[in-house]
Design a protein that fits this description.
Elements lengths: L6 H11 L7 E2 H10 L6 H14 L2 E4 L6 E4 L12 H15 L4 H4 L3 H13 L28 H13 L3 E5 L8 E13 L2 E8 L6 E4 L3 E6 L12 H6 L6 E14 H9 L7 E3 L6 E11 H9 L4 E5 L1 H23 L1
Helix pairs in contact: 4-6
Length: 339
Amino acid sequence: MPRKTDPLQRSLLLLQLIPRHPGMIATTTLQEKLKDRGFEVTLRTLQRDMNGLSMQFPIFCDESERPHRWCFDKGYSHSLPGMDTNEALTLVLAKQYLTSLLPAAVLDSLAGPLNEAHKHLDSIQANGHGSWQSKVRLLPAHQSLVPARFNADVWHVVTDALLHHHAIEARYRKRNNEEPDDYLLHPQGIVHRHSVTYLLATVKNYDDVLQFALHRFESARETVTPFRPLANFSVESYIRNGGFGLLQSEETITLKALISRELFVRLQETPLNESQVLTAPDDTGWGLMTAQVRDEQTLFWWLQSLGGAIRVLAPQQWRDELLRQAKELVGWYEASEKT
Protein backbone atom coordinates (compact mmCIF):
# COMPACT_ATOMS: atom_id res chain seq x y z
CA MET A 1 0.00 0.00 0.00
CA PRO A 2 1.45 3.43 -0.94
CA ARG A 3 2.41 5.63 1.97
CA LYS A 4 -0.05 8.43 2.81
CA THR A 5 0.98 11.75 4.32
CA ASP A 6 -2.06 14.03 4.24
CA PRO A 7 -2.55 15.20 7.88
CA LEU A 8 -6.24 16.02 7.30
CA GLN A 9 -6.98 12.49 6.08
CA ARG A 10 -5.03 11.14 9.03
CA SER A 11 -7.05 13.22 11.50
CA LEU A 12 -10.36 12.12 9.96
CA LEU A 13 -9.25 8.50 10.20
CA LEU A 14 -8.25 8.93 13.85
CA LEU A 15 -11.71 10.30 14.64
CA GLN A 16 -13.22 7.15 13.13
CA LEU A 17 -10.92 4.88 15.14
CA ILE A 18 -11.52 6.39 18.59
CA PRO A 19 -14.32 4.55 20.47
CA ARG A 20 -16.84 6.09 22.83
CA HIS A 21 -16.50 5.48 26.56
CA PRO A 22 -16.35 2.86 28.11
CA GLY A 23 -14.33 1.70 25.10
CA MET A 24 -10.69 2.76 25.06
CA ILE A 25 -7.90 2.49 22.49
CA ALA A 26 -4.18 2.70 23.18
CA THR A 27 -1.86 5.05 21.31
CA THR A 28 0.16 2.10 20.05
CA THR A 29 -3.00 0.44 18.74
CA LEU A 30 -3.93 3.63 16.89
CA GLN A 31 -0.44 3.66 15.38
CA GLU A 32 -0.89 0.07 14.13
CA LYS A 33 -4.31 0.80 12.65
CA LEU A 34 -2.99 3.89 10.90
CA LYS A 35 -0.15 1.84 9.44
CA ASP A 36 -2.64 -0.75 8.15
CA ARG A 37 -4.33 2.08 6.25
CA GLY A 38 -1.15 3.53 4.77
CA PHE A 39 -0.14 6.13 7.38
CA GLU A 40 3.25 5.53 9.01
CA VAL A 41 3.81 8.01 11.84
CA THR A 42 5.94 8.06 14.98
CA LEU A 43 4.38 7.87 18.42
CA ARG A 44 5.46 11.48 19.01
CA THR A 45 3.60 12.64 15.89
CA LEU A 46 0.56 10.59 16.83
CA GLN A 47 0.58 11.98 20.37
CA ARG A 48 0.69 15.49 18.92
CA ASP A 49 -2.24 14.67 16.61
CA MET A 50 -4.28 13.34 19.52
CA ASN A 51 -3.52 16.32 21.73
CA GLY A 52 -4.69 18.62 18.94
CA LEU A 53 -7.89 16.65 18.34
CA SER A 54 -8.67 16.56 22.07
CA MET A 55 -8.70 20.37 22.06
CA GLN A 56 -11.40 20.39 19.37
CA PHE A 57 -13.45 17.31 20.32
CA PRO A 58 -14.60 15.74 23.64
CA ILE A 59 -11.75 13.21 23.66
CA PHE A 60 -10.54 11.87 27.00
CA CYS A 61 -7.01 10.59 27.62
CA ASP A 62 -6.34 8.03 30.35
CA GLU A 63 -2.80 8.81 31.44
CA SER A 64 -2.83 6.30 34.30
CA GLU A 65 -1.52 3.58 31.97
CA ARG A 66 1.27 3.36 29.45
CA PRO A 67 0.71 3.66 26.58
CA HIS A 68 -2.01 6.28 27.03
CA ARG A 69 -5.54 5.27 26.10
CA TRP A 70 -8.16 7.39 24.40
CA CYS A 71 -11.93 7.59 24.05
CA PHE A 72 -14.75 9.95 23.15
CA ASP A 73 -17.16 11.15 25.80
CA LYS A 74 -19.93 8.56 26.28
CA GLY A 75 -22.70 10.76 24.87
CA TYR A 76 -20.76 12.17 21.94
CA SER A 77 -21.59 11.26 18.37
CA HIS A 78 -20.16 12.43 15.09
CA SER A 79 -21.47 11.53 11.68
CA LEU A 80 -19.90 12.21 8.30
CA PRO A 81 -22.09 12.81 6.34
CA GLY A 82 -24.87 14.01 8.65
CA MET A 83 -27.96 11.97 9.51
CA ASP A 84 -31.02 12.54 7.34
CA THR A 85 -34.65 12.60 8.49
CA ASN A 86 -35.53 9.03 7.54
CA GLU A 87 -32.43 7.68 9.26
CA ALA A 88 -33.19 9.67 12.39
CA LEU A 89 -36.81 8.52 12.59
CA THR A 90 -35.86 4.90 11.91
CA LEU A 91 -33.27 5.00 14.69
CA VAL A 92 -35.74 6.44 17.21
CA LEU A 93 -38.34 3.78 16.36
CA ALA A 94 -35.71 1.03 16.48
CA LYS A 95 -34.76 2.15 19.97
CA GLN A 96 -38.41 1.80 21.08
CA TYR A 97 -38.39 -1.78 19.83
CA LEU A 98 -34.98 -2.71 21.24
CA THR A 99 -35.68 -1.30 24.70
CA SER A 100 -37.86 -4.32 25.51
CA LEU A 101 -35.25 -6.74 24.18
CA LEU A 102 -31.78 -5.51 25.11
CA PRO A 103 -30.31 -4.37 28.43
CA ALA A 104 -29.22 -0.81 29.07
CA ALA A 105 -25.53 -1.69 28.72
CA VAL A 106 -26.12 -2.54 25.06
CA LEU A 107 -28.43 0.37 24.30
CA ASP A 108 -25.97 2.81 25.87
CA SER A 109 -23.74 2.29 22.84
CA LEU A 110 -26.48 3.97 20.78
CA ALA A 111 -26.63 7.02 23.04
CA GLY A 112 -24.59 9.22 20.70
CA PRO A 113 -26.48 8.43 17.47
CA LEU A 114 -29.81 8.65 19.33
CA ASN A 115 -28.97 12.09 20.67
CA GLU A 116 -28.14 13.17 17.12
CA ALA A 117 -31.41 11.68 15.84
CA HIS A 118 -33.48 13.51 18.45
CA LYS A 119 -31.71 16.79 17.74
CA HIS A 120 -32.33 16.35 14.01
CA LEU A 121 -36.03 15.57 14.47
CA ASP A 122 -36.49 18.41 16.96
CA SER A 123 -34.88 20.84 14.51
CA ILE A 124 -37.49 20.09 11.83
CA GLN A 125 -40.56 19.99 14.04
CA ALA A 126 -42.29 22.48 11.75
CA ASN A 127 -42.51 20.04 8.81
CA GLY A 128 -44.23 17.32 10.81
CA HIS A 129 -41.45 14.72 10.95
CA GLY A 130 -40.47 15.50 14.52
CA SER A 131 -44.04 15.01 15.79
CA TRP A 132 -43.95 11.40 14.55
CA GLN A 133 -42.09 10.50 17.73
CA SER A 134 -45.32 11.01 19.69
CA LYS A 135 -47.56 9.46 17.02
CA VAL A 136 -45.82 6.16 16.29
CA ARG A 137 -45.43 3.27 18.73
CA LEU A 138 -44.36 -0.36 18.43
CA LEU A 139 -46.48 -2.88 20.33
CA PRO A 140 -44.81 -6.22 21.15
CA ALA A 141 -46.59 -9.41 20.09
CA HIS A 142 -46.16 -10.89 23.56
CA GLN A 143 -45.42 -9.88 27.12
CA SER A 144 -41.79 -8.85 27.34
CA LEU A 145 -39.74 -9.36 30.49
CA VAL A 146 -37.38 -6.68 31.76
CA PRO A 147 -33.97 -7.43 30.18
CA ALA A 148 -31.44 -8.81 32.66
CA ARG A 149 -29.01 -6.04 33.60
CA PHE A 150 -25.28 -6.48 33.28
CA ASN A 151 -22.18 -4.38 33.70
CA ALA A 152 -21.33 -2.12 30.74
CA ASP A 153 -17.61 -2.76 31.22
CA VAL A 154 -18.21 -6.51 31.00
CA TRP A 155 -20.16 -6.00 27.76
CA HIS A 156 -17.34 -3.97 26.26
CA VAL A 157 -14.66 -6.52 27.21
CA VAL A 158 -16.72 -9.47 25.96
CA THR A 159 -17.68 -7.95 22.62
CA ASP A 160 -14.18 -6.62 21.99
CA ALA A 161 -12.70 -10.05 22.77
CA LEU A 162 -15.23 -11.76 20.50
CA LEU A 163 -14.56 -9.50 17.54
CA HIS A 164 -10.79 -9.37 17.93
CA HIS A 165 -10.24 -13.00 19.01
CA HIS A 166 -8.97 -12.47 22.55
CA ALA A 167 -9.25 -14.76 25.55
CA ILE A 168 -10.69 -13.24 28.74
CA GLU A 169 -10.45 -13.88 32.45
CA ALA A 170 -13.79 -13.61 34.20
CA ARG A 171 -15.39 -13.90 37.62
CA TYR A 172 -18.71 -15.62 37.03
CA ARG A 173 -21.45 -16.76 39.39
CA LYS A 174 -23.37 -19.85 38.33
CA ARG A 175 -27.12 -20.04 38.80
CA ASN A 176 -28.00 -20.84 42.44
CA ASN A 177 -24.39 -20.25 43.54
CA GLU A 178 -23.71 -17.47 46.03
CA GLU A 179 -19.99 -17.16 45.31
CA PRO A 180 -18.39 -16.54 41.89
CA ASP A 181 -15.63 -18.66 40.34
CA ASP A 182 -12.73 -17.67 38.10
CA TYR A 183 -12.79 -18.75 34.45
CA LEU A 184 -10.47 -18.50 31.46
CA LEU A 185 -12.85 -18.12 28.52
CA HIS A 186 -12.45 -18.15 24.75
CA PRO A 187 -15.50 -16.26 23.36
CA GLN A 188 -17.14 -17.89 20.34
CA GLY A 189 -20.46 -16.07 20.00
CA ILE A 190 -23.27 -14.05 21.61
CA VAL A 191 -26.97 -14.95 21.69
CA HIS A 192 -29.84 -12.88 23.11
CA ARG A 193 -32.84 -14.95 24.18
CA HIS A 194 -35.85 -14.20 26.38
CA SER A 195 -34.40 -10.95 27.77
CA VAL A 196 -31.11 -12.64 28.68
CA THR A 197 -27.84 -12.21 26.77
CA TYR A 198 -25.49 -15.21 26.67
CA LEU A 199 -21.82 -15.49 25.85
CA LEU A 200 -20.96 -18.75 24.10
CA ALA A 201 -17.43 -19.72 25.05
CA THR A 202 -15.03 -22.57 25.60
CA VAL A 203 -13.18 -22.90 28.91
CA LYS A 204 -9.41 -23.26 29.18
CA ASN A 205 -8.31 -25.98 26.72
CA TYR A 206 -11.67 -27.70 26.38
CA ASP A 207 -13.70 -27.73 23.17
CA ASP A 208 -17.20 -27.89 24.67
CA VAL A 209 -19.13 -24.67 24.07
CA LEU A 210 -20.87 -23.47 27.24
CA GLN A 211 -23.42 -20.72 27.84
CA PHE A 212 -22.61 -17.85 30.24
CA ALA A 213 -25.38 -15.37 31.10
CA LEU A 214 -23.80 -11.90 31.01
CA HIS A 215 -25.74 -10.64 34.04
CA ARG A 216 -23.94 -13.23 36.18
CA PHE A 217 -20.49 -11.87 35.33
CA GLU A 218 -18.97 -9.89 38.19
CA SER A 219 -15.94 -8.82 36.15
CA ALA A 220 -14.09 -9.57 32.93
CA ARG A 221 -10.78 -8.50 31.46
CA GLU A 222 -8.56 -9.37 28.54
CA THR A 223 -5.66 -11.73 29.15
CA VAL A 224 -2.37 -12.45 27.42
CA THR A 225 -3.34 -16.12 27.14
CA PRO A 226 -3.56 -16.98 23.41
CA PHE A 227 -7.07 -17.28 22.04
CA ARG A 228 -8.21 -20.79 21.05
CA PRO A 229 -10.52 -20.60 18.00
CA LEU A 230 -13.01 -23.41 17.56
CA ALA A 231 -12.73 -24.79 14.02
CA ASN A 232 -15.88 -24.44 11.89
CA PHE A 233 -17.95 -23.06 14.78
CA SER A 234 -20.95 -20.89 13.97
CA VAL A 235 -23.75 -19.67 16.21
CA GLU A 236 -26.33 -20.74 13.62
CA SER A 237 -25.15 -24.36 13.58
CA TYR A 238 -24.86 -24.36 17.37
CA ILE A 239 -28.53 -23.38 17.73
CA ARG A 240 -29.63 -25.71 14.91
CA ASN A 241 -27.91 -28.60 16.64
CA GLY A 242 -29.88 -28.03 19.83
CA GLY A 243 -27.60 -25.66 21.72
CA PHE A 244 -30.56 -23.87 23.34
CA GLY A 245 -32.98 -26.77 23.17
CA LEU A 246 -35.10 -25.07 20.50
CA LEU A 247 -34.83 -27.54 17.63
CA GLN A 248 -36.31 -30.89 18.64
CA SER A 249 -35.39 -32.68 15.41
CA GLU A 250 -34.17 -31.95 11.87
CA GLU A 251 -37.36 -33.39 10.36
CA THR A 252 -40.03 -31.24 8.72
CA ILE A 253 -43.43 -32.10 10.13
CA THR A 254 -47.01 -31.31 9.09
CA LEU A 255 -48.89 -29.01 11.42
CA LYS A 256 -52.65 -29.39 11.02
CA ALA A 257 -55.14 -27.54 13.21
CA LEU A 258 -58.64 -26.17 13.48
CA ILE A 259 -58.55 -22.39 13.91
CA SER A 260 -61.07 -19.80 15.05
CA ARG A 261 -62.40 -17.07 12.76
CA GLU A 262 -60.20 -14.46 14.43
CA LEU A 263 -57.08 -16.58 14.05
CA PHE A 264 -58.01 -17.36 10.44
CA VAL A 265 -58.02 -13.65 9.61
CA ARG A 266 -54.71 -13.10 11.38
CA LEU A 267 -52.99 -15.99 9.59
CA GLN A 268 -54.51 -14.91 6.29
CA GLU A 269 -52.81 -11.52 6.68
CA THR A 270 -49.60 -12.75 8.37
CA PRO A 271 -48.97 -16.41 7.42
CA LEU A 272 -47.02 -18.84 9.55
CA ASN A 273 -44.75 -19.53 6.57
CA GLU A 274 -44.88 -19.90 2.78
CA SER A 275 -46.26 -23.45 2.93
CA GLN A 276 -49.37 -22.47 4.89
CA VAL A 277 -52.74 -23.48 3.41
CA LEU A 278 -55.98 -22.17 4.90
CA THR A 279 -59.57 -23.36 4.57
CA ALA A 280 -62.17 -20.73 5.47
CA PRO A 281 -64.31 -21.28 8.60
CA ASP A 282 -67.56 -23.17 8.05
CA ASP A 283 -70.89 -22.85 9.88
CA THR A 284 -69.30 -24.14 13.06
CA GLY A 285 -66.96 -21.14 13.10
CA TRP A 286 -63.80 -23.19 12.64
CA GLY A 287 -61.40 -23.15 9.71
CA LEU A 288 -58.45 -25.40 8.90
CA MET A 289 -54.75 -24.57 8.73
CA THR A 290 -51.99 -26.84 7.44
CA ALA A 291 -48.29 -26.01 7.10
CA GLN A 292 -44.93 -27.73 6.83
CA VAL A 293 -42.91 -26.67 9.86
CA ARG A 294 -39.72 -27.49 11.72
CA ASP A 295 -40.02 -29.34 15.02
CA GLU A 296 -39.07 -26.36 17.17
CA GLN A 297 -39.85 -25.57 20.78
CA THR A 298 -40.64 -21.93 19.97
CA LEU A 299 -43.43 -22.96 17.59
CA PHE A 300 -44.94 -25.23 20.23
CA TRP A 301 -44.86 -22.34 22.73
CA TRP A 302 -46.69 -20.21 20.17
CA LEU A 303 -49.40 -22.87 19.87
CA GLN A 304 -49.72 -22.91 23.65
CA SER A 305 -50.15 -19.13 23.73
CA LEU A 306 -53.16 -19.31 21.36
CA GLY A 307 -55.25 -21.16 23.95
CA GLY A 308 -58.78 -21.92 22.79
CA ALA A 309 -58.29 -20.25 19.39
CA ILE A 310 -56.60 -23.37 17.98
CA ARG A 311 -57.20 -27.12 18.17
CA VAL A 312 -54.18 -29.11 17.03
CA LEU A 313 -54.93 -32.23 14.97
CA ALA A 314 -51.34 -33.13 14.04
CA PRO A 315 -48.60 -33.94 14.79
CA GLN A 316 -49.81 -36.46 17.34
CA GLN A 317 -47.06 -35.79 19.88
CA TRP A 318 -47.99 -32.11 20.06
CA ARG A 319 -51.68 -32.95 20.32
CA ASP A 320 -50.97 -35.41 23.15
CA GLU A 321 -48.82 -32.91 25.05
CA LEU A 322 -51.38 -30.11 24.73
CA LEU A 323 -54.09 -32.51 25.92
CA ARG A 324 -51.96 -33.53 28.92
CA GLN A 325 -51.39 -29.90 29.87
CA ALA A 326 -55.06 -29.02 29.42
CA LYS A 327 -56.14 -31.90 31.70
CA GLU A 328 -53.58 -30.85 34.29
CA LEU A 329 -54.87 -27.28 34.29
CA VAL A 330 -58.51 -28.33 34.44
CA GLY A 331 -57.69 -30.62 37.36
CA TRP A 332 -55.92 -27.84 39.22
CA TYR A 333 -58.68 -25.27 38.67
CA GLU A 334 -61.42 -27.73 39.67
CA ALA A 335 -59.50 -28.69 42.81
CA SER A 336 -58.89 -25.05 43.73
CA GLU A 337 -62.62 -24.31 43.48
CA LYS A 338 -63.31 -26.93 46.16
CA THR A 339 -60.87 -25.47 48.68
